[in-house]
């Protein structure tokens, strides 16, 4: 009964999302074709959707697409999974202990606002290869959303549940496994989803170090040689890959917290 009731809403949401994308595409076509000029924003040199489609097709039929994709995917996922392991572990420690929070959180909060581009010189000095430097920059992009959401999720767990588990004789590991992790899981998954998006966000910055392959490098190189349509192709590729991988993380995460997902559907 509930499933049937939700079907019209799902179709309405899908229609609204499709309409939004089509409206953006129509505006892009009109603004780039007729060279709209709004004073501070001008579309004089913005390529049309047709020019971008041609550039995308040329990339697809070339031999460069797979090496670019392979390089970017390996860097993003290596940095992301490293950030996920460290961010969740630190988040659990900080969220459970005020002493650990007082010791670790201040330096992390100092590092958190530093933009990815500012890490480039230090990353080059710290790591023996440009590949490790790029992975490190994507790692920094993913780490802090995962860390902070994990801390928030752990701190938001109802203290009465923890006290009840202790009164029943549960060990520290059992409390962590049966109370803390399930309670913090929705926030952790949110952090993992955001962290995946920020990894892709940092990709262009990371691949400025690279000299050959990667979607970020392709986008930056296109800017340097003024291939404007290729710039948009690179941007859209990063956007689609980032959206797709974030959606994948969110979907997989929902499989681990079915109770939370079903509650939101009601």
Q: CATH topology of the largest domain, what is it called?
A: MetI-like fold
Record field, number of beta strands: 0
Write the CATH homologous superfamily of the largest domain: MetI-like
**Mean pLDDT, as a whole number?**
87
Percent of residues in helices comes to: over 70%
CATH class of the largest domain: Mainly Alpha
State the domain count. 2
**In terms of per-residue confidence, which ranges show pLDDT below 50 for 5 or more consecutive residues?**
none
The radius of gyration over CA amounts to: 22 Å
Q: Helical segment tally?
A: 12
- Straight-line distance between termini: 11 Å
Strand fraction equals under 5%
- The CATH architecture category of the largest domain equals Orthogonal Bundle
Overall, the morphology is: globular
The main sheet comes to: none
SSE string: HHHHHHHHHHHH
| Alpha-beta classification | mainly alpha
List keywords for this structure.
MetI-like_sf; single chain; cell membrane; mainly alpha; 266 residues; 0% strand; 12 helices; transmembrane helix; transmembrane; MetI-like
Task: Describe the fold and architecture.
It contains twelve helices and no strands. By secondary structure, it is mostly helical. It folds into two domains: 1-46, no CATH class; 47-265, MetI-like fold (Orthogonal Bundle). α10 (215-224) runs antiparallel to α11 (228-256). It is globular, with a radius of gyration of 22 Å. It starts with a helix and ends with a helix. It is found in: Cell membrane. It is a multi-pass membrane protein. Belongs to the binding-protein-dependent transport system permease family. Keywords: Cell membrane, Membrane, Transmembrane, Transmembrane helix, Transport. Residues 69-249 form the ABC transmembrane type-1 domain.
